[in-house]
Structures are given as C-alpha cells and as structure tokens.
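ok new one. same drill as before - structure tokens go in, u give me an amino acid for every spot. 688 of them this time. try not to just spam alanines like last time pls lmao
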C-alpha cells in the first residue's frame, strides 16, 4: 500500500528525490508518511485463504529464454553482484529475486536472512514476503475476471455495485475505471488509516470502509492521485458481485488456478477454512521486517490492520509463487498450472485506461505502464512496514522480474535491480538532447514554482507530510529548467512548449495548465500514478516555519523580561504587569511552548520508529500536541479580549514599550494559530 518513503517511485525525478531524502529528521518523517509513497505506496494485511492441493502442471509449449538473457550463468553472476553490493551498502537483511522468461525460470534465489535473530536464511520457495501494493494487481485481476463474465462494467458508476456505501462522490460520479487508475478524486489520509484499529476488528467490511471514507477533493478522471482507498472499494465490489469474501475470491479464482499455494491476502484471519495447521505454517514461514539501528538489525513489530483494506496491500507471497503469476501474465493468463483469464481479457488488462502522458506512459487495469530502455514495461511497487518490493514485466522481451526485501532500506535494491539489469543486457540507444529553443526565455517564467504530489492529505493531521517532499522548478541562466527536491537535482531542456527532456535522456517532463494558469500540473513520463500540482505560499514549509520562529522569538522576549526585572530588583513591576493582564499572554506562551515540545516529541518518535505509522491512532504524543495547541488558541483569544483594555489604558504598569510588545506578541500568536489551523495541527483530527 505504499505510503511513500525512502523507496523507489519509478525512474521519475520525484521518486529518485524521495529516495535521497533520508538523513534529515523531516526526511525520516516523510519516509513514514510518503511513502510508506512511492514504490508506491502507502498494502496491509487481512483475510486468509484455505489450504487447497497443488494441482499437477498442465503441459505447455516450452518457450526459449529471451535472447539477451539466454546465458543463465551470466545473468546469475550479474544479479548476484548487484544484490550483494546493494545489501552490503544499504544494510539490507534479506531479499528474494525471481526472473522468468515465459515458462523458463532464469533465476529464483534468496539472499541474506529471513530472521536476523535466528539466523534463518531466506528460502525463495518457503519464506513469505509482504508485497504490499503489488496486491493491487491481484485485486485488478479479480475485477477483470468479473468483467470477462459480464458482471462488472469498468465504465459503470461504482454505486451500481456498492449501493449506498458511505463514500464521497460529491465532486462527480466514480467509475470502476477511476478506481483502477487512481483518478477517483480522493484525498489521501495517513495516520489512523493503515494501523491496527481494535475498534473495527470484527465489524462488517462496509462499516470499516465507511469509517475510512476519504473526502473527494477533485472531479474524477482529471488527474491521478495514488489511492489505496480506491482499491479497498474494488475489493468490496469483488465481494458483493461474486457473493464471496474478497479473500475467498482471490484464493479460489486467482491463486488456485495459478498454483499459488503459498500466498495469502493476510496472515491474520482465516477466510475459507479454519485450519490451524495452515495458519501455523504461514506464521512460521514469514520473513520478518528489519531495520538497521545502532549497529545491529532489529526486528520490528507488525500490527495487522482490519480486513477492509486488504485489497490494496495485504498480500504475502513467496518468490516461487510470484514466478507463477509473472508466467501467466506473459502467457496471456495461463501458466503450467492453469488459466486465470482468457487471452482477450489479458489484452484488455494490459490496455491503458488513463494517461497523463499519452503515447509514453499510463495506467492500465491496475498496472503502471512505463517506458524502460526503449521497451514498454508493466510494473508495480510495494512498500509496507520495512518490506520493499517491485514487479516488472516486459512482454516485448518476454521477461518478468520480481524483487522483495525485508529491510527499510531495501527500496534501494527493489527499485533499481530491474533498471540495472536492462541497462546491462539490453541497453537503449542514447537519446539525442536538443539545444534550448531560441524563444524559451519568453515563456520560461510560467514553469517556475513549487509543486507537490496530488497524493496528499488535505483535511487532517497528515497534511504536514507535504512539508518536505516538495518539488521546486527554476529557470537557469542557460535556458534550462532545474528541478530540485532535497539533495536531488535534474536539468531539463524544452523540446516543444510544455514538454521537456532530461539532459541525460532519462525521463520526460510535461506541464499542463488549469483554471487559466499556464502550468498548474507537472507530470513525469515514468510516474503514471501520481502528478505534481503547483501550490501557493500557504502550502509551503515557510507558511508554518516562519510563524513558529516569530512566535518563539516573541515568547523568549516576553518570558525573558520578568526574569531580567527580577535580576534587577524589579520583581514587583513584573508581578504588577502580570496581575494587570499580562498573565493571559504568559499562559498562552506556556501553552504554545507545550505545543512545540510535543510536536518535537511526535517528530522524534516517528523518526525513531516508523512503525508508529501502523499503530492505533491517536498515539502518544498526538493527544498532548493537540491539547496544548487548543489551549494555546483559547488563551490567545482570551489575551486578545484582555488586550484592548491594556493597550488603550491610560493608567497601569504598561508603558508605551510594554503595550507595543503586548500587541506584537498577540499578533504573532494569532499568526501562529492561523498557521496551525491551516496545517490541521490546531483542530482535533477526526482522522489521520
């Protein structure tokens, strides 16, 4: 389910940027919010299938390995070198890699440890890795099977299948295609969505989905904004149309035909059969999530979420089972065990439903379709609780690549192995980069600005997640555009109005206008599932950090004055000032100090333990943060009420300087309160 962080988001500029923002405190927090974005992001687990016997393989016409990869020894040698180097550089505990071409398994291998405490080595046939949002491909496959049977229409209003389920469609009708392509118009919520919520365990899925309902913030079909909730709704459509639970359906209709007996949409709840031995086997074979801390690997807890959000990222699987899925994709729905869909359905599944970059990339029925070394790749990523995964299939090369790791830093491997592999074995020709157009300077200014992902939280506390991952665009002196995010920068040259090519030829960038603005959105050719939207000043970090800094200065000056007076023997003057109304400012100042303290506690806690992202919400110190913020706001209002009497009084301990300081301090406190309201820190959040 990918809430994007420190993981690969494709080859696009923003994805690379996100991977590189890992050292700062905000960067770690972004790793919690955003990604756990990109490899995209943000899937959790629930629901379990039955046991089922592995059926005998069906005879299929054997396929020769794709020519560039026919030397298995050379392929293995290359992959071994890349994997071991990345694991050593980035402290990755364990990984699995599988590479197939048609019916031939070119490589299926485990590296490192499944459990650092026990020293158990990774077994690609045995150990289950959580593949997070790669689950969405299986949910999409379930939908396409129902389309094949005439039970679902991708262009139909989802209320056709979900009735009066409490989701928001006030901005416009949502179709099944909108859910499949992340164009449903929903915002994205962070805290409280992915975590373990004991209040929802056991409730009907519909009630869980209504509790999680996202606000629709734009019209459907206009722009992509990666949506986990959208795929949760697809899972409910599968359940209602088929008459089975989502877990039952995926087991019986997708896993079973493909011989995937070591895959699960959850490690928590049995769905088809209450088989303790089956559940015990799955529990025993889990690869554990790890993080490198203080010179050692730590195994992290993994609270399971509720059943409703399993369709967006609850799956766990082995490399051997993912091989079977890739083989079926490359063989029009059929592998050596059975058939999951007809060739016609698979052709429809691979067709692009929506594209921000027509002719170059887009979103098919669940898959991301991106250019890769001159070929068209169908891919998806997954990121959850320190598991980082990637699946890439290229029919033109008849090859599929799957990588999964059990360490937070594993995105550096999962997000790059396929690119390194293709660049080595099937390198594309260099792309000719033209000189800037002679008239570029005349329109260059329209592109400059700050942009932020359309996949963001607008209404709740998690809105602050966009403070760090912002993309800035500048015009250079030599008529190029410079795209900067954190420590990453990339130069682009204009190839036609609004279209740009990276100077290293690696990706393309496109600007589009809206509401009369020449450049409201920026898209990257290798990021079909998310856009970047130009933002105003009040959505930039300065709109929060500036009021905080000014308020801190005012607090220091206000609190420092009575201390200095006391040291000068003027304690009576300080008491007189406080008793005349200065106590209101003092109380507000102390409340704001408490707000800053617990905000620091929250950011420190998230940086130290990203798995708080999956904890029951609200967790410490969120209630204290909001409690002090609310107190600060109320006390600031009280101080304003008292302030008129103080500022305009002709008598009393306040001189002209004191009145001026009082007025400025209150003004800065009011500015701070407005900033905290803008960033959803002052109101108590109903959701994350």
């Amino acid at each position: 389910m990918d809430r994007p962080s420190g993981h690969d988001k494709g080859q696009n500029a923003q994805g690379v940027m996100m991977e590189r923002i890992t050292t700062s405190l905000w960067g770690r927090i972004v790793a919690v919010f955003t990604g756990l974005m990109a490899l995209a992001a943000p899937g959790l687990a629930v629901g379990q299938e039955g046991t089922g016997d592995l059926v005998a393989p069906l005879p299929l016409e054997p396929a020769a390995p794709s020519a560039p990869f026919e030397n298995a020894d050379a392929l293995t040698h290359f992959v071994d070198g890349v994997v071991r180097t990345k694991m050593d550089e980035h402290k990755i505990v364990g990984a699995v890699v599988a590479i197939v071409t048609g019916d031939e398994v070119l490589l299926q291998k485990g590296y490192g440890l499944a459990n650092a405490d026990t020293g158990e080595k990774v077994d690609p046939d045995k150990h289950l890795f959580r593949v997070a949002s790669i689950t969405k491909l299986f949910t999409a496959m379930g939908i396409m099977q129902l389309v094949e049977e005439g039970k679902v229409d991708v262009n139909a209003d989802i209320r056709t299948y979900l009735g009066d389920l409490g989701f928001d469609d006030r901005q416009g009708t949502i179709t099944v295609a909108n859910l499949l392509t992340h164009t449903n118009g929903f915002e994205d919520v962070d805290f409280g969505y992915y975590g373990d919520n004991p209040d929802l365990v056991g409730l009907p899925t519909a009630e869980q989905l209504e509790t999680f309902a996202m606000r629709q913030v734009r019209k459907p079909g206009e722009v992509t904004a990666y949506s986990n909730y959208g795929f949760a709704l697809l899972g409910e459509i599968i359940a209602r149309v088929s008459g089975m639970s989502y877990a039952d359906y995926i087991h019986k209709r997708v896993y079973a035909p493909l011989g995937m007996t070591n895959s699960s949409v959850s490690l928590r709840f049995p769905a088809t059969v209450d088989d303790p031995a089956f559940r015990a086997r799955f529990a025993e074979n889990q690869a554990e999530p790890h993080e490198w801390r203080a010179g050692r690997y730590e195994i992290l807890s993994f609270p399971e979420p509720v059943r409703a959000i399993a369709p967006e990222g609850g799956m766990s699987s082995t490399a051997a089972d993912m091989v079977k899925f890739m083989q079926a994709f490359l063989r029009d729905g059929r592998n050596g065990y059975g058939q999951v869909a007809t060739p016609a359905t698979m052709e429809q599944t691979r067709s692009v439903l929506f594209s921000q970059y027509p002719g170059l990339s887009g979103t098919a029925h669940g898959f991301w379709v991106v250019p890769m070394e001159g070929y068209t790749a169908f891919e998806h990523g997954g990121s959850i609780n320190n598991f980082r995964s990637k699946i890439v299939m290229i029919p033109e090369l008849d090859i599929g690549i799957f990588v999964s790791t059990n360490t937070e830093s594993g995105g550096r491997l999962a997000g790059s192995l396929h690119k390194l592999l293709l660049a080595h074995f099937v390198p594309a020709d260099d792309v000719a980069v033209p000189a800037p157009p002679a008239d570029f300077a005349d329109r260059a200014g329209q592109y400059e600005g700050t942009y932020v992902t359309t996949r963001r939280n607008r209404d709740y506390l998690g809105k602050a997640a966009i403070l760090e991952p912002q993309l800035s665009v500048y015009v250079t002196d030599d008529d190029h555009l410079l795209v900067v995010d954190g420590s990453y920068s990339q130069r682009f040259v204009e190839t036609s109005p609004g279209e740009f090519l990276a100077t290293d030829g690696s990706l393309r960038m496109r600007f589009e206008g809206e509401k009369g603005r020449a450049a409201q959105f920026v898209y990257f050719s290798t990021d079909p599932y998310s856009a970047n939207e130009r933002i105003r000043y009040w959505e930039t970090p300065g709109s929060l950090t500036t009021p905080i800094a000014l308020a801190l200065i005012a607090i220091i000056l206000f609190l420092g004055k009575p201390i200095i007076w006391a040291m000068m023997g003027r304690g009576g003057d300080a008491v007189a000032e406080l008793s005349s109304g200065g106590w209101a400012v003092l109380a507000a100042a102390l409340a704001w100090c408490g707000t800053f303290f617990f905000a620091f506690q929250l950011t420190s806690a998230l940086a130290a333990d990203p798995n708080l992202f999956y904890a029951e919400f609200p967790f410490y110190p969120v209630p204290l943060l909001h409690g002090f913020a609310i107190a600060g706001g109320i006390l600031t209002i009280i101080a304003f009420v008292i302030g008129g009497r103080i500022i305009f009084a002709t008598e009393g301990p306040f001189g002209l300087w004191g009145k001026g300081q009082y007025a400025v301090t209150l003004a800065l406190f009011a500015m701070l309160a407005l900033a905290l309201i803008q960033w959803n820190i002052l109101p108590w959040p109903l959701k994350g």
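The radius of gyration is 27 Å. and btw The chain has three domains: 43-425, 440-539, 542-678.
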